Amino acid sequence: MSRPIRWKQYKTFEVLGNMESLPEAFICANDKIAMTVIKALQQNGKWIPQDISVVGFDNCDLAMLSTPTIATVDNFLDEQARSAVCRLLRRLKEPQLPHERILYLTEFVDGESLRKRQPHLP
């Protein structure tokens, strides 16, 4: 028994189905969107990654359960959350502290949704 399609998913299916040509890849804001795009592309007869690549962002647990598995970027959200809570608690104690700009590392996580390029040989 299939689940009902949500409105956002339906719109994604509709938009992708109406596109005259598709890009080489979709780079999605998160893995949930990547899963929706993959499903919509598959519903429109596209093979991932043979026809088109899809990449997510956030490395959610479902990325590895998707078919195909999603190539994604791990942004180490747990580390960001811990850091934010620590900074917030410190600012509550010391409101005069200067504002900080913090950069976090990310890591690419390969998945089956990304077509591998053949190396160019001279």
Keywords:
122 residues, alpha+beta, Rossmann fold, two-stranded parallel sheet, two-stranded antiparallel sheet, 3 helices
Concise description?
The protein is of the alpha+beta class. It is 34% helix and 10% strand.
Give the topology, please.
Blueprint: H1 7-18, E1 25-27, H2 31-43, E2 53-55, E3 72-74, H3 77-93, E4 107-109
Parallel strand pairs: 1-2
Antiparallel strand pairs: 3-4
Helix pairs in contact: 1-2
- Briefly note the CATH topology name of one domain: Rossmann fold
Shape: elongated
- Name the average pLDDT: 87
Radius of gyration from CA coordinates: 19 Å
What does this 3D model show about the protein?
The protein has helices spanning 7-18, 31-43, 77-93, and strands at residues 25-27, 53-55, 72-74, 107-109. The chain is of the alpha+beta class. The chain has a domain at 7-79: Response regulator (Rossmann fold), CATH 3.40.50. α2 (31-43) links the parallel β1 (25-27) and β2. The mean pLDDT is 87.
